[in-house]
Design brief:
Shape: globular
Distance between the termini: 16 Å
Strand content: under 5%
Number of helices: 15
Order of helices and strands: HHHHHHHHHHHHHHH
Number of strands: 0
Oligomer: single chain
Largest sheet: none
């Protein structure tokens, strides 16, 4: 009975198409290649590696890596809280697995667009009701956006001069990124708490798109849009009916995000820094996230490195040290976790496929 339910759940929520995944991975390799070429042309990579190896306080690097475990644990705690409120509890192992998957999919797709569908399919395949699984993912996405917007607002107020005292390109990127963060957060909140208004506006734009042939199948697109709003309605109903749930989820996400934004401070200490305060570097890193996270670039590859380097130059005595700090921080918070969670994702996908094939032959 459980296996039949899993099959029905997987059919109801389709995974992202393989062609889309291939394009995403191709884009990642292109961005990595361009970023590597720029770094090699601008810096002596061997010298940057030596700066890290000869760091006077290398132990702080391990502290930063340990904090990333807290970051992943925070996501697992969030999903356990949300799933329990939605009526399907998940264990610690599955919560940790979903934490890894939800890091990999947003990091491997433009703007994280592949993550909600992929994670919903995974949770549905594990036996969770599709609507509830989707509602849990929606909760996580919206709460994450709200927390980022709140932290970004404080960061912008405190470091306004620092952000806009840099070059023109950075100011442009920051304004676009911040605007995208506000706009995307507004859309999510609108869809969550004002589904009636969202439905009317959404169907209006679908109709306009169909007239100008931007939307090929108006009926199918409208049906998918209406279905997705139903999932948002389910998430909103749970948040409203469960007393204190939204506050708890906000707190859990705040702790998780604060852990992530704390890593650059330990990178700073490992490279001999000490003049700047934890609070200053913490909010500086939030500025990087606000500028990059909402833009349609997988993992912010290239752009994140550029923005981080520009802001880190105010922390370190030389450009080489700032570049070394940027690369070290990106390795801790993005590249190493991307590789590890990618391995977990591939193993999980392979085991799932093997399980299905064995079942089909019996």
């Amino acid at each position: 009975m459980k296996e039949k339910l899993m099959e029905e759940n997987i059919k109801e929520h389709k995974a992202p198409k393989n062609r889309g995944r291939l394009w995403s991975f191709l884009l990642i390799f292109i961005l990595l290649g361009v970023t590597a070429v720029v770094l090699v042309r601008e810096f002596d990579i061997g010298a940057l590696v030596s700066l890290v190896k000869n760091s006077p306080r290398i132990g702080f690097v391990y502290c930063g890596a340990a904090i990333m475990l807290l970051y992943f644990s925070g996501y697992a705690v969030f999903m356990r809280t949300a799933s329990k409120a939605l009526g399907f509890g998940i264990g610690r192992f599955r919560a940790a697995l979903y934490s890894a998957l939800d890091f990999f999919y947003p990091s491997a797709t433009p703007g994280g667009c592949g993550s909600p569908a992929a994670l919903t399919v995974t949770m549905s395949g594990d036996g969770a009701p599709p609507a509830s699984a989707s509602a849990a993912v929606i909760m996580q996405t919206i709460v994450f956006r709200i927390v980022l917007l709140l932290l970004g607002s404080v960061s912008g107020a405190l470091l306004f001069t620092g952000y806009f005292g840099t070059d023109r390109l950075f100011r442009t990127v920051f304004i676009i990124g911040a605007g995208a963060t506000v706009f995307v957060t507004f859309l999510f909140v609108l869809a969550l708490f004002f589904t009636g208004v969202t439905k009317r506006v959404g169907l209006l734009f679908i109709g306009i798109g169909a007239k100008f042939r931007f939307v090929k199948d108006k009926a199918a697109t409208s049906a998918r849009f209406t279905e997705s709003l139903g999932e948002y309605r389910a998430a909103a109903k749970t948040l409203k009916s469960s007393r204190g749930l939204l506050g708890r989820l906000l707190l859990e996400t705040l702790v998780q995000r604060c852990a992530l934004f704390s890593v650059p401070y330990f990178t700073y200490l490992s490279l001999g820094g000490g003049e700047k305060s934890f609070i200053y570097i913490f909010f500086l890193q939030i500025g990087v996230s606000v500028a990059v996270d909402s833009l349609p670039i997988p993992g912010g590859i290239g752009l994140n490195e550029y923005v981080s380097f520009l802001l880190y130059e105010s922390l370190y005595p030389t450009s080489e040290t700032a570049a070394a700090a940027m690369l070290l921080n990106r390795a801790i918070v993005y590249y190493i976790p991307l590789i590890l969670t990618g391995v977990i994702t591939v193993i999980r996908s392979g085991l799932t496929t093997l399980f299905r094939k064995r079942k089909e032959t019996t």
